[in-house]
Amino acid sequence: MLTGTFLGLGALALAATAVAPAANAAPVPVTGLNCDGDTYKCTANLRFGDGRWVAQWNVNVFHQSAASHQRAARSADAPRGAAAPVPVTTLSCDGDTYKCTAGLQFGDGRWVAQWNANVFHQAMASAVPAASAKTVKAPREAAAPVPVTALNCDGDTYKCTANLRFGDGGWVAQWDAGVFHQN
């Protein structure tokens, strides 16, 4: 019975590795980014294969007004008649709060999607264990949040990485994402 279980797990592992062709370089660039206030997910279109690959992650969607921000992130403030998902107009990440925030093209323009991200320097991440890389914070005199200069997602590690316009250019924000093909 154990042999059958291990063979079954081995077959699953082989099937999982066959999902995305290994010959293509990873991570791959993001060609479009949309967030949905109904499903509380952001979806990044990936420049990969037939163009129908996406990365998707959970987000909080809320209005930036003081009253809405103090309530729960999943409030009922969003007008339900709007089409979803909506395009992202701005994207920034904050090394103090460990959050990335996407401005949404919706309503009065003050709606945002926000999610948790690890923010670290790429050189320091290779020098210290991954668990402690999050503790290496940006210098306090720097302005936060900072703009994102590039966004890539990786179907092998199931992570999206945003390059940040900060310091020497080695700072990134990274978060887990589901990567799959749209049928």
UniProtKB/TrEMBL annotation:
Protein name: Ig-like domain-containing protein
The keyword Signal is assigned to this record: yes
Keywords carried by this UniProt record: Signal
Secretion signal, residue range per the UniProt entry: 1-25
Top-level taxon of origin: Bacteria
